[in-house]
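To the team - uridine-5'-diphosphate-xylopyranose complex, inputs and output below.
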Amino acid sequence: MTNREPQIVVIGTGYVGLTTAACLAHLGHDVVGVDVDEAKVWALRRGEVPIVEAGLVGMVSRGLESGRLRFETSYEHAAGDVVLLCLPTPTTAAGDLDLSYIESAARQLRDVLEPGAIVVTKSTVPVGTHRDLLRWLDRPDLAVASNPEFLREGTAVHDFCHPDRVVIGAADVGVAERVAGLYRSLSAPILITDLASAELVKVAANTFLAAKLSFVNEMSRVCEATGGDIDEVIAGIASDHRIGTAFMRPGPGWGGSCFPKDTRGMAALGRQHGLELPMVTATIASNDAHMDHIDLSIRTSLGRPLADATVAVWGATFKAGTDDCRDSPALAIVRRLAAAGARIRLFDPVARPSVAGVEHCGDAYDACDNADLLVIATEWPEFGEADMNKVARLLAAPTVFDTRGILDPAAVAAAGLILHRPGHGASWAGVSNRDAVGTGSGGPR
Ligand code: UDX
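Output:
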């Protein structure tokens, strides 16, 4: 290899690949993003970003203007020194990860890469994938590495530029150091490991985070049953520095494109190796139980058969800040209520998923028009700032179910609305129902 700056190729321009390509160009590297979707590549060349991701449009346009970032559809342009695979690895019906996109990319790279190039997996892959990758590449003059990403959707650009750590797995320290060179201008610690450990880190980290949330959601159910207040309980346990405050918000259950897939992937790994992994299986079962509990709690708060009811729902994406509805707990709520016969008036600031029986509304207030219940299903900040007096005037019945705990209980009570929130015992509303009813300026219709 010469001393020139390495040419970086990113295969796949989804939220991980596009963020990675644009941010590496921002760090001063020469980057080519390759995607087989021609329409997407043409749009990206014009600076059009097909996903909602804070700061990404600016990163892409600056990369294009500087000439350090370009997009191609053909593997002819993939002959880089370091090739990062950012391809989908969907879950199969059996719970394993489907590696066919990785395999197909590796077989095409085999024909174009120069000797000494490094092929790096960034996508979530099962431990041991590096051996398959070497087999598919079938070129002893190429090296492989694992560099898992930890980007959260919605804050992916920020996470790329300010990582807690960069993990690089390789069989040879020279290879690891060449990959580490991509991140040399970041101040993050770089952890160099063997290949199997690096492949495990991503799935282990996500399984741990999911377990944390399953635990918090279980505690919210304990609070409801015993009269405790989940906010007080979390404040009490999170102030122990060994536990910490991050990732402790109760909600409607965890979802998204990573946690369900990665927890199932870890459970499948246990089965393949004949290992009992009761923490992992309980983490998944606990989340399923929590989603059932939220569904039942919503029905109870409605107080009438769903088949006779109109329910306003705010939020469809799996969390705020993204347009992604994959494995969205918000959408699970919508689907369950609609399947039970409720008319759903849905508003989400960015997503309009198609679900039978669901009417998409122009704004959050429009969704409330004559509805018997308002459910807040995604924590978009604008929902927390909504005028609750206006909501109270629009709703046909004075009940709000805030699955994310983002509304101000005092403002809801002042509007004369009854508030239900996970993790709040007794009346399990932030204020008692008696206090809430009749104190509002507008009052329910
Ligand atoms: C996650 C990991 O955080 C990230 O490191 C990895 O690369 C991809 O998977 P993401 O799927 O974008 O990122 O979402 P994240 O913000 O982690 O949230 C996951 C789920 O947990 C969402 O359903 C979210 O609503 C829920 N959540 C998160 C809570 O219910 N409470 C919290 O306190 C935090």
